[in-house]
Specification:
Strand order of the largest sheet: 2-1-3-4-5-6
GO molecular function: DNA binding
CATH class of the largest domain: Alpha Beta
CATH superfamily of the largest domain: Response regulator
Structural class: alpha/beta
Largest sheet: 6 strands, parallel
InterPro entries: CheY-like_superfamily (IPR011006), NreC/VraR/RcsB-like_REC (IPR058245), Sig_transdc_resp-reg_C-effctor (IPR016032), Sig_transdc_resp-reg_receiver (IPR001789), Tscrpt_reg_LuxR_C (IPR000792), WalR-like (IPR039420), WH-like_DNA-bd_sf (IPR036388)
Radius of gyration: 19 Å
CATH architecture of the largest domain: 3-Layer(aba) Sandwich
Number of domains: 2
Number of helices: 10
Number of strands: 8
Keywords: DNA-binding, Phosphoprotein
Distance between the termini: 52 Å
Domain Response regulatory: 3-122
Order of helices and strands: EHEHEHEHEHEHEHHHHE
Pfam family, one: GerE
Length: 222
């Protein structure tokens, strides 16, 4: 029996997930929560194999979004995470996967895809629901004609952009690189201008490995 905790601040989302899972003979709901702190309490109290959770919920002592997901992955490594969300930003979703999420499910999908998502997460496999996979396929298709960066980025701009793609916030990047938040924000904005993009989601199209970057004449990769 797979033991599951459901977490969402919208009662309808909880109710819909409960209705689908209740029809399964091999999955049991052990708790429901409507904010992250309740999730932490339940994870400390009951045995849970898979957490099905929204991305952003108010009322967390550990922050929400990526901070919340990273905290769960770090503190409860045995619990697999299924992200059930309306987010359609590939950058954020990729960062979520890198932060410990095993399965991505869109709230635009039919809720019955929760069952294969939970099953996959439970055995340690990656899963993307049909709507999520379609989103990533679209981004990859758009990127085929622009697989390398032909605009000139400085090595520092490249470093900042690569860390953003890896899921770090501007504040976290500033701390790690020992630069001011203003400097990091400026480098991000300048890099996006050079790349001809205006939305964070568009950054996902590019590969920011140093070998693929044409560096500016005043800087080297070192």
């Amino acid at each position: 029996m797979i033991r599951v905790i459901l977490a969402d601040d919208h009662p309808l989302a909880i109710g819909g997930a409960e209705a689908i899972i209740s029809g399964s003979r091999h999955i049991s709901i052990v708790a429901t929560c409507n904010d992250p702190d309740q999730v932490f309490v339940q994870l400390d109290k009951v045995s849970c194999d898979v957490l099905v959770t929204d991305y952003s919920m108010p009322g967390s002592s550990q922050g929400d979004g990526l901070s919340y997901l990273r905290f769960i992955a770090r503190r409860y490594p045995a619990t697999k995470i299924v992200l059930l969300t309306m987010i359609a930003n590939p950058l954020s979703l990729t960062a979520a996967e890198k932060s410990g999420v095993s399965a991505l499910v869109s709230k635009l999908d039919k809720l019955d895809v929760l069952i294969p998502a939970i099953d996959a997460a439970y055995v340690g496999k990656r899963y993307r629901s049909p709507a999520m996979q379609a989103l990533f396929d679209k981004v990859e298709s758009e990127a085929r004609g622009n697989e390398t960066i032909t605009k000139v980025l400085s090595s520092r701009e490249c470093e900042v952009m690569r860390m953003i793609v890896e899921g770090f916030t501007i504040t976290e990047i500033a701390e790690k690189l020992h630069r001011s938040i203003k400097t990091i924000s400026t480098q991000k904005r300048t890099a996006m201008h050079k790349l001809g993009v205006s939305k964070d989601a568009d950054i996902y199209k590019f590969d920011f490995n140093m070998s693929d970057i044409k560096l500016g004449p005043s800087e080297s990769a070192s």
